[in-house]
Amino acid sequence: MNTVYLSTAYFAPVSYYAIMLRYNRIVIEQWCNYTKQTYRNRCHIAAANGVLPLSVPIVKPDTLKYPTRDIRISDHGEWRHLHWNAIASAYGSSPFFEYYQDDLRPFFEKRYTFLFDFNEAIRQTMCILIGIEPQVEFTESYASPAPDETDLREAIHPKRKTAETIPSLHLKPYYQVFTEKYGFQPDLSIIDLLMNMGPESILILKDS
């Protein structure tokens, strides 16, 4: 059984879901120290003015080293309303927005306490919509993968190119709403793939 370790992620990028299809066993790390500017609390979508980052505000920990599992979501501002409006604006004209909007909207209506629980609920729903059933486990303490296991906890990162951190992964281009304006924009949030390709999303992931 081949195993991969991943971090938790907010509407994770396409590469994250492509990786889940490659491995028999997925272990999601929940006890690593939380760090800023990662996909743990942000995602990137394709908007009319280019790539738009969406970040979930968190309650600032009182120590520098704080486990991701215990990070709480902040209710400061109207981020849920802003995120949903940004997604609806970006993908309102996409082929599958009307089909999937009722599956996504609840995530911006229900209030989750912990970021990890929020991300996991999103991941489960995205897997159902895509049509994949990964075998997922969670670390019980900070893990040290075995020599024959793959550690990609920091490889899928907004400041690193997936082509460099995971050379074996070749993300297949697909139709995007703003392709004519900006060209194909790789490894955006899974929202982008789902809204543009719908049931064919799984084919793109398998070919990547």
Strand and helix map with partners:
Elements: E1 3-7, H1 14-22, E2 25-29, E3 42-47, E4 50-55, H2 79-91, H3 97-104, H4 115-130, E5 136-138, E6 150-151, H5 162-165, H6 179-182, H7 190-197, H8 201-207
The number of distinct helices, counting runs of at least 4 residues, comes to 8
Shape: globular
**Average pLDDT metric:** 96
Major β-sheet, in short? 4 strands, parallel
Low-confidence runs:
none
Query: Order of strands side by side in the largest beta sheet?
Result: 5-2-1-6
- Straight-line distance between termini: 21 Å
Question: What is the chain-wise order of helices and strands?
Answer: EHEEEHHHEEHHHH
- Share of helical residues: 25-40%
Radius of gyration: 16 Å
Word description of this protein:
The chain is an alpha/beta fold and 208 residues long. Helix content is 33%, strand content 13%. It has eight helices and six strands, in the order βαβββαααββαααα. It has helices at 14-22, 79-91, 97-104, 115-130, 162-165, 179-182, 190-197, 201-207; strands at residues 3-7, 25-29, 42-47, 50-55, 136-138, 150-151. A four-stranded parallel sheet has the order 5-2-1-6, with helices on one face. A two-stranded antiparallel sheet has the order 3-4. It starts with a strand and ends with a helix. The model has no long low-confidence stretch (mean pLDDT 96).
Please supply descriptive tags for the structure shown above:
208 residues, alpha/beta, 4-stranded parallel sheet, two-stranded antiparallel ribbon, 33% helix, 13% strand
Question: How is this structure best summarized?
Answer:
With 208 residues, this protein is an alpha/beta fold.
